[in-house]
């Protein structure tokens, strides 16, 4: 059984940040669960182009408001508490925070822990997978 607190994760090397976001990674590849689980905070005013070419992601909004734009269709969806979105097709998107948003995120395959987005908006593939 794995037990961790968000407070402890935020105070450890499991906490990763880059412009516009901060992510406390509660489960990682080394935990052996087959997915990773993060609590990610998106800053108010952030506009984050992303394209998880190597991962699928599911996100649930805990608090705050923003939007996600599907770059393939141009469609924009509002995000507010209770909204879930899943990037099941490795969808290119822009995530925008109108207010600070707190999101619960699941990645498959799991991340290893220190990933940040590259110039294409992706996390690198784990070559040891």
UniProtKB/TrEMBL annotation:
The keyword DNA damage does not apply. InterPro entries: Ectoine_synth (IPR010462), RmlC-like_jellyroll (IPR014710), RmlC_Cupin_sf (IPR011051). Pathway: Amine and polyamine biosynthesis; ectoine biosynthesis; L-ectoine from L-aspartate 4-semialdehyde: step 3/3. GO terms for biological process: ectoine biosynthetic process. Its EC number is 4.2.1.108. Gene3D superfamilies: Jelly Rolls. Pfam families: Ectoine_synth. GO terms for molecular function: ectoine synthase activity. It catalyses: (2S)-4-acetamido-2-aminobutanoate = L-ectoine + H2O. Keywords: Lyase. The keyword Lyase applies. CDD domains: cupin_EctC (cd06978). Catalyzes the circularization of gamma-N-acetyl-alpha,gamma-diaminobutyric acid (ADABA) to ectoine (1,4,5,6-tetrahydro-2-methyl-4-pyrimidine carboxylic acid), which is an excellent osmoprotectant. Belongs to the ectoine synthase family. This is L-ectoine synthase. It comes from Niveispirillum cyanobacteriorum. The lineage of its organism: Bacteria, Pseudomonadati, Pseudomonadota, Alphaproteobacteria, Rhodospirillales. The gene is ectC.
